[in-house]
Amino acid sequence: MIRQAKGKTPRRLPPKKASNSQKDPVGVYCRVRPLGAEDEECCIEVISNTTIQLHAPDGLKANRNGEFKETQYSFKKVFGIKTTQGELFEDVAKPLVEDIIHCKNGLLFTYGVTGSGKTHTMTGSPGQGGLLPRSLDMIFNSIGPYQAKRYVFKPDDKNGMEVQNQVDALLDRQKRDSQTTVPKTPTTRRIDPEFADMISPEEACKADGVDEDSSYSVFVSYIEIYNNYIYDLLEETPIDPIKPKWNVAGTPLRNNTEFIPPQSKILREDQNHNMYVAGCTEVEVKSTEEAFEVFWRGQKKRRIANTQLNRESSRSHSVFIIKLAQAPLDADGDNVLQDKNQVNVSQLCLVDLAGSERTSRTRAEGSRLREAGNINQSLMTLRTCIEVLRENQMCGTNKMVPYRDSKVTHLFKNYFDGEGKVRMVVCVNPKADDYEETLLVMRFAEMTQEVEVARPVDRPICGFAAGRRQRNQAFKEELTRRLEERGGPLDGESPTVLNQLLQSFPPLPPCEISGPNDDVTLPRLIEALEKRHKIRQMMIEEYNKTANMLKSVLQEQDSNLLSKENFIQEQRGKLGEKDKMLQNQKNEIDRLEKKSKMLEYKIDILQKTTNIYEEDKRSLQHELESREQRLQREMSEKRRMEARMQGIVTDSKLKWEKECERRVNAKQLEMQNKLWVKDEKLKQLKAIVTEGKTENRQPQRPSREKDKVPAKRSASPSPVPSPYHASQSSLSSLEPIYNFSQTVRPDPHFLRPGSVSVASCISEWEQGVPQSRRQGSQSPPDRRKRAQGLPDSLSRRRGRCWAREVPVQPAEVDLEETGHWTGPPVRPLHRRSHSAGGERWVDHKPNTNVDLDTVLQPNLPNAIKVNAPSEKALSKCDKYVLTHQEVASDGEIQTKLIKGEVFKTRGGGQAVQFTDIETLKQENPVAASRKRRSSETGPDGEPKEGDWTDVETRCSVAVEMRAGSNLGPGYQHHGYPKRRKP
Ligand code: ADP
Ligand code: MG
């Protein structure tokens, strides 16, 4: 609001921001124009009356995959292609016009790409007047009856307004009338047919609450900002009669179409901090037609300038400023109050911005490119200003807004810094070609909505009683009526009424006196005059009475009016309150809508996050389950293993306990035996000492006994629980040993050939067992010789048995002879019969193996011979043997037979549990000479026996028991140390 303060000490007003805390966001509206051609690709869809959706055109989508998504933009209102100019005006411009009438400033601009309908929206097309003509029309419809006479308001050159006195105004009017030939009354004037159909009086709008006690005047200016220069489009260019005019092409221009390049104008700031174009023409207009005609004149001038200067109109901003000056009537309600402080000027700026497209699109070159750059620069500055404003408002920062960087933003600085209502119509062409530009426009528009502008305050009341104009008019009307009733006014302007009145008087008698004695004429005249006087008296009385009556009526009416006025005022106040409430609620709704939109967006994001988390959760749960299952499996496996281990532990414990018990018992027995032998010796000694006669025979026994004792001492302390003893039941004193040995498995450790039990020695000694028999048990070659004489089955068994054979020779003989060996149980795996037949073997012999040219080849009938183990072969067999060869440190080939049992695994495969390793050393064909030497060094030089010895003695690899194997500790197999032949 520009408030006139001229004539008084100019006072700088404090910044308006401080005085008004209420703010409204910039109202951004979106208008979608119809497509140029029906078959054009469309990229915009109106989804509600506040939201549009942009679809990336197919070509773009293909070019840049995923970059362009479908985006929605919301505005205060969206106008679809079917929106009429009237509907748009109703929503967008009408409130601004109402504001200007109520002394509040407004700014309305159209923004968009060239061809999107900015000019169509602002100015309109033939038959479809835009916002500009409609705004003008509404203004004049509203203030029409209250307009001041021309030149009552007169703009000063500082953006202010003066009120001229009646005489000056009248003189100015007369001057104008003499200069122009325009008819006095604009309403009867012929409208230019070029734009006549842009103004449609049938759609006339009218503002409510126009202050009738004020006088109004409308002034318009029209400027163009091109390349950051301001041009006045209404400037009357003085015609220079001397200088010839040339147009740009160099040809002289003819009479009326002279073109003088316009001079650019500068911006100034008035005392209220409003920016104005210094020296800009302001034309006072009294009707819509006149105003639009002025605009049209400017428009034409703009067109000519653009053509002459080869400029593109789409790159310029046009600003049409409607200024409304209003001042209260004086107390009589007759004339405009001559107080300049009471003049209010409000303005509505209608801005048709330049096309917002980028320079590249306009295909500009050279100086045009520079121009285009500037145009873009000014729109860029607008953008930056909006951005900074928004940031300042949202974050409470105080960044400098670069209004001064371009003329457009500088001109409207106070709308954003001060107060006013700002609205923007974003025009969009839905064609796909404009997609990228439209996207930028939408982003700018969305951002602009977030900027808030201080709401203009209501103007103060002037202090006079309201209804002055009406009272004044009513009085005038009444007076005329009465005067007409009475036959004419008093000022004698109407002679017919006066004549009538005069005729109602009695006629005057002839006034000529005939002579000095004429005493008739005078008295008659006196009488007539007296009569007339009386009538006059009566008339005056009547007049006074009527005047009094009229006065009282007027007074009555006045009081009536006053009360009505008061009532109206009251109602108006209430209405104002309601309006405020409504506005507040509207704001609240707006705010809530924004909030809900925000929340919806947040919900959307949260939903997405939740989905992701849920997916994570599901996968984790799945993993957890599988791990739990695995754990469960492992646990059960562990439990099974534990149970098995427990079984094994208890088994072995039991076995060891028994073993220990057995050993203790054996030890005890041995001790007893020793005791007994000593006793016996003592007895014998006693006998030697006492019986001198037997001296010749006795020495032999002690010598035998001496031989025996060391043997006993060197023997293992353990008695031999050999099957041999099973048949030695004749010695009753050894019965316990026999019984014990029956329950204990043969321990190879204790069955070493060199370790004959004491008990057996004693028993032998007692029984007189032949020396050769006893010796036999200690001489392997002898034993082997005997073995060769054994039945075939037995010798074969030995050959295959290799190192595992328990080499207690007598036991074997006895076993064969007696045939009822009830010795300890033997693990089935070790039974020859198993490998001999009945079971199927997988004989795994790698290709690299050297042929075993020995009789000690494992004999595996039915065996499937393979080079590499295959599941197929394994599945058919239940035993597995791997013949593994390696060169030992002494150069001999060491052949290992690694045996195992084939199990079916739960998974359907096969597993081999190795149970046994047998080792055979063989002469390496490569190092044959060395090997031969070693075996030939024997004194008896028997190669076969040497071979046998080698095999027999070198199988010194223990069979490693696996957990769970049912072989007890007593069954641990040990190879025998290689014995050297004496
Ligand atoms: P701009 O000023 O943005 O460059 P114009 O207003 O000149 O665009 O519009 C270009 C053309 O499109 C004009 O011929 C105009 O009549 C037409 N046009 C624009 N908007 C509409 C609309 N809403 N309805 C019908 N025609 C339109
Ligand atoms: Mg345009």
From TrEMBL:
InterPro entries: Kif23_Arf-bd (IPR032384), Kif23_Arf-bd_sf (IPR038105), Kinesin-like_fam (IPR027640), Kinesin_motor_CS (IPR019821), Kinesin_motor_dom (IPR001752), Kinesin_motor_dom_sf (IPR036961), P-loop_NTPase (IPR027417). Its main location: cytoplasm. Pfam families: Kinesin (PF00225), MKLP1_Arf_bdg (PF16540). ATP binds at residues 112-119. Residues 540-644 form a coiled coil. SUPFAM superfamilies: P-loop containing nucleoside triphosphate hydrolases (SSF52540). It is found in: Cytoplasm, Cytoskeleton, Spindle; Midbody, Midbody ring; Nucleus. Keywords: ATP-binding, Cell cycle, Cell division, Coiled coil, Cytoplasm, Cytoskeleton, Isopeptide bond, Microtubule, Mitosis, Motor protein, Nucleotide-binding, Nucleus, Phosphoprotein, Ubl conjugation. GO terms for cellular component: Flemming body; kinesin complex; microtubule; nucleus; spindle. Residues 1-15 have a biased composition (Basic residues). Signal peptide: none annotated. Residues 1-23, 689-730, 766-798, 818-846, 923-982 are annotated as: Disordered. One of its GO terms (biological process) is system development. Residues 25-451 form the Kinesin motor domain. Residues 692-710, 941-953 have a biased composition (Basic and acidic residues). Component of the centralspindlin complex that serves as a microtubule-dependent and Rho-mediated signaling required for the myosin contractile ring formation during the cell cycle cytokinesis. Essential for cytokinesis in Rho-mediated signaling. Required for the localization of ECT2 to the central spindle. Plus-end-directed motor enzyme that moves antiparallel microtubules in vitro. Belongs to the TRAFAC class myosin-kinesin ATPase superfamily. Kinesin family. This is Kinesin-like protein. It comes from Cyprinus carpio.
